[in-house]
Specification:
heterodimer, A: about 280 residues, mainly alpha, about 80% helix, B: about 300 residues, alpha/beta, Rossmann fold, 6-stranded mixed sheet, 4-stranded antiparallel sheet, about 30% strand, elongated
Chain lengths: ~280, ~300
C-alpha cells in the first residue's frame, strides 16, 4: 500500500514536471523519423518496413532509454536528501525499501508510458501509411517495446544504486554519465578491440556470450536483433545469433537480474544511510 | 504518567565528533517539553535519533513502543514531526502534499485537509508548494505534523518564520493537544516564548544534557538572584534606603528605582524590610530569573566543569 502511495505521487510529480511529456515526445519524434527515413532502403514496396524500424529503433534505444532512465533516477535518493524532503518522508510510518520500490514503480510507469506511446505511434503511422505488417513483425515490435522498458528498468535501478551511495547530486550525475558511457559505448568498443586482437584463438563463443551478458545494453541488443529470425537477417547479426548459445529466456533472465541486483543493493545502501 | 519516549544513555558520534553524549530522559503523556541549546548542541540529533533517521552509537531509544534504530515504524503513525527548514516537493500543491501524507498515515484525507484551513493555508491549498513563502511552508509543515491527532509531536524550531498571530495560534493548538495527552517536544531559540508554556525544560550543551526539570525546579537549582525593584519616594541620588542590608548587591535604575539582587533565602526577609512601616515605598516589582538567564547560568556551569 505504501509502495503504491509513493509510486502514484512519483507519477504525479513526473507529469507535473513535464517529464512524461518530454520523454514521450522525444521518443515519438525519433521513432517516427526513423520509421519514415529508415524505410528508404527498402522502398515503398518493402515488405518488412517494421522489421527495419526495429533494427534502427533498437539501436537508438540503447543510447536514449538508458540516458532518460539515469536522468530521472540518479537524483531520486540523494536529491531528495539534499532538498530535505526525504527527512520528512522517512518520519512517516513506512520502511525505506518501500520508498525505494515506490519510486521505482513510479519511474517505471513513466518510462513504460513514454516508450509504448512514443514507439507505438511509429508503428501506427506505418500501418496508416499503407505498409503491410504481418503478425511476426508486430510480435517482434511489441517485444522491442517490452525489452526497452526492461532496459529502462535496469538503468533506473543502476541510477538508484548510485544515488543511494553518493553524498551529493553532482557526484551522482557525474557517475551516472560515466556509467552510461561505459555501458553504452566503451564496453562494446573494448570488447570489439579484444576480439580483433584475439583473432578467435582464445575467446570461445561461450566466453563471448558471457561477456555480452555482463553488459545490459548488449543483452538488449542480442534480444532484439537476434531474437526474431525475420529481424536478424536485416540486422546483420545472423552470424552472431548462430554463434551465441544465449536463448531468449537467458537474455530475459539477464535483464531481470540486471534490474533486481542493483535495486536490492540500492535498498541495502539506502537502509544503512544516515541523514 | 506513561512514558511515550524513553532515551537511555544515548550517545551518537559522527566520526570523531560527539554529537550527543550519554543522554537519558523520559517524556510522558501530556508533557510539553522545551529542548533548548545552541546550534550544534545536539537537539536535532536527538530528534533524528527518535525517528530512526540516524542510529545511536550507544544506548537505547524507545518511541511509542518502537525501537527506531532497528527500523520499527508502526508507532510512527501516531507521531508528528516538523523538521527544521522543512521542505516539500515543489511541483505538488499544498492540498496534494497534505493528501499524500495523510494517506501514508492511513488517516482520513478530508480531516487532514481541514488542518490546512486551521493553519491559514486554505486559500493557497491549490497552489504549488514551489510558490509558497517560507512562512507558508512552515504552516504546511505544521499541518502535516498534526495529521491524525499525534501522540508524540517532535517540533524542531517550529515557530521560525511564523508571524506573531500564527505563533499564538500555534501554541494554542499545541497546548490543547498536550492537554489531551500528546507528548510535545519542541526545540527553540525563542526562550521567552517557551517560558510560560513549557512545563519542563531540557538544556543541552555540546551534546550533554546539562539541566532537566520544570522552570521552578531549575530556578531553585540555579540559585540565581531574584531582582526586586523598589521605587522609594524622596530618595536622593546616590542615597540608599537605610533599612537595606549592606551585603545585598544593588544598583539604581532611571535615577529613582533601586534594584536589588536577592538570593533565594534573602528574598522574603528583604521584602519584609521593604514593606515595613516608614519606608516611603511607592512601588515594588519582583522579577524572577527568566529562562534566558537560567540557560546562560547552566551553560556557564557546564563550561566551568571540565
Amino acid at each position: 500500500m505504501n509502495v503504491i502511495i509513493v509510486a502514484s505521487k512519483e507519477i504525479q510529480q513526473a507529469i507535473r514536471n513535464r517529464w512524461v511529456l518530454a520523454a514521450t515526445l522525444l521518443l515519438a519524434a525519433l521513432a517516427l523519423s526513423l520509421a519514415f527515413l529508415g524505410s528508404a532502403p527498402t522502398g515503398t514496396v518493402g515488405v518488412r518496413a517494421l522489421d527495419v524500424v526495429i533494427v534502427s529503433l533498437s539501436s537508438l534505444t540503447i543510447f536514449l532509454v538508458p540516458l532518460i532512465a539515469l536522468l530521472i533516477s540518479h537524483d531520486a535518493i540523494v536529491g531528495d536528501m539534499e532538498r530535505g524532503t526525504m527527512l520528512l518522508l522517512l518520519s512517516y510510518p513506512l520502511a525505506r525499501w518501500q520508498v525505494l520500490l515506490g519510486k521505482f514503480l513510479g519511474h517505471l510507469v513513466v518510462l513504460a508510458f513514454a516508450t509504448s506511446l512514443g514507439y507505438g505511434l511509429a508503428a501506427a503511422a506505418l500501418v496508416a501509411s499503407g505498409s503491410r505488417i504481418d503478425s511476426d513483425s508486430l510480435a517482434a515490435f511489441a517485444a522491442m517495446i517490452g525489452s526497452s522498458v526492461m532496459l529502462g528498468a535496469v538503468f533506473v535501478a543502476i541510477g538508484y544504486l548510485v544515488s543511494a551511495l553518493v553524498r551529493d547530486r553532482g557526484t551522482a550525475a557525474g557517475i551516472s554519465i560515466g556509467l552510461w558511457l561505459l555501458l553504452v559505448l566503451i564496453y562494446d568498443m573494448a570488447l570489439l578491440g579484444l576480439l580483433a586482437l584475439d583473432q578467435g584463438r582464445n575467446i570461445s563463443a561461450t566466453a563471448l556470450g558471457v561477456m555480452l551478458l555482463f553488459n545490459p545494453t548488449d543483452v538488449y541488443r542480442l534480444f532484439n536483433l537476434t531474437g526474431f529470425a525475420n529481424v536478424s537477417t536485416f540486422a546483420g547479426m545472423a552470424g552472431v545469433a548462430q554463434s551465441t548459445s544465449l536463448s531468449i529466456q537467458v537474455l530475459l533472465l539477464a535483464l531481470t537480474l540486471w534490474t533486481l541486483v542493483p535495486l536490492s543493493l540500492a535498498a541495502l545502501a539506502f537502509s544503512r544511510r544516515e541523514l | 504518567m506513561t512514558a511515550t519516549v524513553q532515551i537511555g544513555n544515548v550517545t551518537k558520534h559522527y566520526g570523531r565528533i560527539a554529537a550527543v553524549t550519554d543522554v537519558s530522559f523520559e517524556l510522558g503523556e501530556g508533557e510539553m517539553v522545551a529542548l533548548i541549546g545552541h546550534n550544534g548542541a545536539g537537539k536535532t540529533t536527538l530528534m533524528k535519533l527518535m525517528l530512526g533517521l540516524i542510529r545511536p552509537t550507544g544506548g537505547s531509544i524507545l518511541v511509542l513502543g518502537d525501537n527506531p534504530a532497528a527500523g520499527q515504524f508502526a508507532g510512527r503513525r501516531h507521531l508528528g514531526y516538523l523538521p527544521e527548514n522543512v521542505s516539500f516537493d515543489a511541483a505538488l500543491t499544498g492540498r496534494e502534499t497534505q493528501t499524500f501524507y495523510a494517506r501514508l498515515k492511513r488517516e482520513r484525507v478530508a480531516k487532514a485537509l481541514q488542518l490546512l484551513d486551521a493553519v491559514g493555508l486554505g486559500a493557497a491549498a491549490s497552489r504549488r508548494v514551489g510558490t509558497y513563502s517560507k512562512g507558508m511552508r512552515q504552516r504546511l509543515g505544521l499541518a502535516q505534523a498534526l495529521i491524525g491527532r499525534p501522540q508524540v509531536l517532535l517540533l524542531d524550531e517550529p515557530t521560525t518564520g511564523l508571524d506573531p498571530e500564527l505563533r499564538q495560534t500555534f501554541y494554542e493548538v499545541i497546548q490543547r493537544l498536550a492537554a489531551e495527552g500528546t507528548t510535545v517536544l519542541l526545540s527553540s531559540h525563542a526562550l521567552t516564548e517557551l517560558e510560560e508554556r513549557a512545563g519542563r525544560v531540557i538544556i543541552m550543551h555540546r551534546g550533554i544534557k546539562v539541566a532537566d526539570g520544570s522552570i521552578e525546579s531549575l530556578r531553585k537549582l540555579a540559585r540565581l538572584p531574584t531582582r526586586i525593584r523598589l521605587k522609594v519616594a524622596g530618595l536622593a541620588p546616590g542615597e540608599v534606603p537605610s533599612w537595606l542590608p549592606a551585603s545585598a548587591p544593588r544598583r539604581r535604575l532611571n535615577g529613582h528605582i533601586v534594584e536589588i539582587d536577592a538570593a533565594p533565602e534573602q528574598k522574603i526577609e528583604l521584602l519584609r524590610c521593604a514593606t515595613a512601616s516608614g519606608t516611603a515605598l511607592e512601588d515594588l516589582d519582583i522579577v524572577p530569573p527568566n529562562l534566558d538567564e537560567l540557560y546562560a547560568h547552566f551553560l556557564r556551569r557546564s563550561e566551568a566543569k571540565p
